[in-house]
Structures are given as structure tokens and as C-alpha cells.
Amino acid sequence: MKSTSLFIFSLVAALFLGPIFPFWGLMLVLTVLAAIIGGRAWLAFFAAGSAVGLVWLLVPLWISVRSGSDLPEKMGSIIGIENSIYLMLLTALIGVLIGGFSALTGNLFRKLFQTKPVGYYKV
Prior knowledge:
Helix content: over 70%
Oligomer: single chain
Strand content: under 5%
Number of strands: 0
Order of helices and strands: HHHHH
Distance between the termini: 33 Å
Radius of gyration: 18 Å
Structural class: mainly alpha
Mean pLDDT: 89
Shape: elongated
Number of domains: 1
Low-confidence stretches: none
């Protein structure tokens, strides 16, 4: 449940705050979201990472198809990538990594301040 809510909040944040903030501002928002929501660390990584990666794949694809621009092909040729789809996949991979590590940072920051119950009767 926590990973699903982190996925949805990260998806909405990346979709609506992505055009407003620079990428590092969005990552700070994801860090705070993951610190508030909590849950397992690896689920936070994959939930936020997949949400940001999905947004960073679908939005440029939608813009490219809708506008019919050849800018992605030109950007790909500058970088050395022949196909613009590979450029969008590379962008999505970068989004997965930085979104996931941002959520992981927030989740582990939350766990710094959580106390573990002391088991007095465990052997």
C-alpha cells in the first residue's frame, strides 16, 4: 500500500512539477515524499524510480509524436545515438536511477530516526 501510494504521488509530482522545477528540485520533493510515506527501502526505490522513468519516457514520446519535430533525431545525432527512441529510453533510465535513489535516500533518512523495539525476552 505504501509503495503504491509512493508510486502515485511520485507520478503526479513528476508530471506536474517536472516542467516547473529543475530535475534536482523534483528529486528533493521525491526525497521528502519517501521520508513521509516510509515503507521498505527497495520498494521505495522501485516505486519512485518507475514512476519518474515512466513520466520521463512517455512525456517526450507524446511531445515528439504530437509535434512531429525532428529535434529528438538531431539531439540523438549530437550524442551519437542514431534512433530517437534510444534517446528517450536513455532518458527514462536516467529518470529511474535518480528518482529511485532520491526515494531511497528519503526512506533511509526516515529510518535513521525510527527506534527499533527492544526484545527483552528474545534468546
